[in-house]
Amino acid sequence: MKLIGSLASPYVRKVRVVLAEKKLDYGYELENVWDAGTQIHLANPLGKVPCLLMEDGSSMYDSRVIVEYLDTLTPVCKLLPANARDRAAIKGWEALADGVLDAAVLVRLEKTLRPQEQQSAAWIERQMGKVHAGLAVMSAELRDSPFCKGNHYTLADVAVGCALGWLAFRFPDITWRDDYPNLARLHDKLSERASFKDTLPQ
Ligand code: GSF
Predict the structure, then answer these.
(1) Any ligand 1 atom below 6 A from CB of 49
(2) Could you count the other beta carbons within 10 Å of the beta carbon of residue 82?
(3) Quick check: 21 and 199 in contact, CB under 8 A?
(4) Containing H/E element for 92?
(5) Helix (H, G, I), strand (E, B) or coil at 141
(6) Treating both helix axes as pointing N-terminal to C-terminal, what angle do 121-142 and 84-113 enclose, rounded to 10 degrees?
(7) How far apart are CA 180 and CA 55, in angstroms?
(8) Mean pLDDT confidence for 26-51
(9) Helix (H/G/I), strand (E/B), else coil: 119
C-alpha cells in the first residue's frame, strides 16, 4: 500500500504514526494538494491528503477511516479496543482532536490564502473559539492520567499528540502548554516515541 501525503499535514502524521506503531511497510508519496497541477483528485475526489492507495488499485480516505483499518491489519500495538463503548470513547477523543485541527486549519487558510482586506475577523474568532474550547475539554478529560484513556496508549493519544504538535508548529502563539500543563506533559511524553520523532511536521 502507498500513502499519499504531505510533510506538514497533521492528519497525514496521524496515519504515519499509526503505520510506524503497527510496524507496517508502506510506500510514501508526497503531493502538494494546493498546486494547480495536483493529481490528488484522481485518488480522492475530495482532493485531500491523507489518501491510502491499496494493492487492488482502490483508494481509502479520510484519516479516521484509514487508521481504523490499519489497526485491524496486525495485533502489534492495538490502538482500538474491541469493546464498542471503549472504542467509541477513543474515537470521540479522535473526533475532538481532529475537530480542533479542522478549526485551526480553517483559520490558517483564511489567514494565508485570502488577501488581508477580505479576511473575516468574526470567522477567525469563531474558529479560534472551537480550538480553545476543544483544548479545555481535552485537558479536563485527561486530568492526571498517563494517557487519554487511562493507563493505555491508544489512538486517542496519537490523535491528540498530532493535534498538539501541529498547533505548536503553526500556532506558536497559542499558549496551551502554559494553560494546560497536563496536555504539555502528555505531548512531551508522546514526543519521545520514535513514531512521533520520525514524523515531525515540517
Ligand atoms: C482532513 C484532511 C485534510 O483536510 C482527514 O483526512 O482526516 N478529515 C480529513 N487535509 C488537508 C491537508 S491538511 O490541512 O492537513 C488537505 O488535503 N486539504 C486540501 C483541500 O483542498 O482542502
Answers:
(1) yes
(2) 7
(3) no
(4) helix 84-113
(5) helix
(6) 150
(7) 43
(8) 97
(9) coil
Q: Which residues contact 175 (CB under 8 A, 6 or more apart)?
A: none
- List the residue whose alpha carbon is closest to atom 9 of ligand 1: 62
Q: Ligand 1 within 6 A of 10 CB?
A: yes
Encode pLDDT of 153-200 as tens digits. Answer: 999 999 999 999 999 999 999 999 999 999 999 999 999 999 999 999
Mind listing the domains of the chain with CATH numbers? 2-70 (3.40.30.10), 84-193 (1.20.1050.10)
Report the C-alpha gap between 97 and 91 in whole angstroms: 10
Phi, psi angle pair for 97, to nearest 5°: -65, -45
**Ligand 1, from 49, 110, 199: best to mutate by most atoms within 8 Å of Cβ?**
49
pTM: predicted TM-score of the whole model, two decimal places: 0.98
Task: Judge whether 136 and 142 are in contact, CB under 8 Å.
Answer: no
pLDDT tens for each residue of 44-55: 999 999 999 999
pLDDT, tens digit (0-9, with 9 covering 90-100), for 120-160: 999 999 999 999 999 999 999 999 999 999 899 999 999 99
Q: Is 44 near ligand 1, meaning CB less than 6 Å away?
A: no
